[in-house]
Amino acid sequence: MQKIINHTQTIITARDSSTISISDRGLNYGDGFFTTAKVVDGQVQYWPHHKARLIECAERLGFPELDFYSLENKITPHITDLQLSVLKILITRGEGGRGYSLPSECNITILLSVLDYPRNYSALAKKGVRLEISPIKLAAQPYLAGLKTLNRLEQVLIKKAMQTQNCDDVLVLDHNNNVIEASAANIFAIKNHKVFSPLVDECGIKGVYLQSLCDKLPVEFKRVQVEDLTQADAVFVCNSLMGAVPVKSIEQQVFNTANSHALLTKLLAKEAKC
């Protein structure tokens, strides 16, 4: 991908009086990407992985290189005094171009938001999550697979459908009935002391927490069916905000969450000694 040399980077925070243009490409075309991070004691958890996500999104979507020095300096004063919060970094291609055509000069817009940490995550981590299967299936698009772009209408429909389902979250499948992810989290499972997770090479998001887990454990990425999960020894949903949360049930299949915690803890401890 050819690099764009002439570009600017505008950073807007919730405390600024600046506003986003109605001509912004992120607003009009979903031309952008984002990451959502957990802030603990003034520090962004898994920051190297969030940074790697932003870099990959920028490269694959043909954005210019991001100025992380300016970005980090802008973030720091907004999170320094926070004990537990959420930082959202949203990046668009800014204004310009005719219709869908790209602008000759890219004027990146970066929106920084500091949000409350979800109240229900602590409870879910203790009791585990109940999963049902979503009726909304993900379309295949390898060019965007793995990326956290601004195009999230499928997830909006998934959350809408969840209003009629009696569960904490859902398993989301593709049109070949492969398990891809949860509504806003990745999935991984343990079977015979080995960890596996669905491939996201045609759709789905490559999550930050799951990438960090790969630094600690060998994880096999493969095609996964619902039966592979229901026959597993333990199943987890995970993202950078909640960490790894055990699955209590998938439809009628029930898991022992205490056993799930023990299996994961044992695997992490074993790999740490290696």
TrEMBL record:
<dbReference type="InterPro" id="IPR043131">
    <property type="entry name" value="BCAT-like_N"/>
</dbReference>
<keyword id="KW-0456">Lyase</keyword>
<dbReference type="InterPro" id="IPR017824">
    <property type="entry name" value="Aminodeoxychorismate_lyase_IV"/>
</dbReference>
<keyword id="KW-0289">Folate biosynthesis</keyword>
<dbReference type="InterPro" id="IPR036038">
    <property type="entry name" value="Aminotransferase-like"/>
</dbReference>
<protein>
    <recommendedName>
        <fullName>Aminodeoxychorismate lyase</fullName>
        <ecNumber>4.1.3.38</ecNumber>
    </recommendedName>
</protein>
<dbReference type="InterPro" id="IPR001544">
    <property type="entry name" value="Aminotrans_IV"/>
</dbReference>
<dbReference type="GO" id="GO:0016829">
    <property type="term" value="F:lyase activity"/>
</dbReference>
<comment type="subunit">
    <text>Homodimer.</text>
</comment>
<comment type="pathway">
    <text>Cofactor biosynthesis; tetrahydrofolate biosynthesis; 4-aminobenzoate from chorismate: step 2/2.</text>
</comment>
<keyword id="KW-0663">Pyridoxal phosphate</keyword>
<dbReference type="InterPro" id="IPR043132">
    <property type="entry name" value="BCAT-like_C"/>
</dbReference>
<comment type="similarity">
    <text>Belongs to the class-IV pyridoxal-phosphate-dependent aminotransferase family.</text>
</comment>
<dbReference type="Pfam" id="PF01063">
    <property type="entry name" value="Aminotran_4"/>
</dbReference>
<dbReference type="InterPro" id="IPR050571">
    <property type="entry name" value="Class-IV_PLP-Dep_Aminotrnsfr"/>
</dbReference>
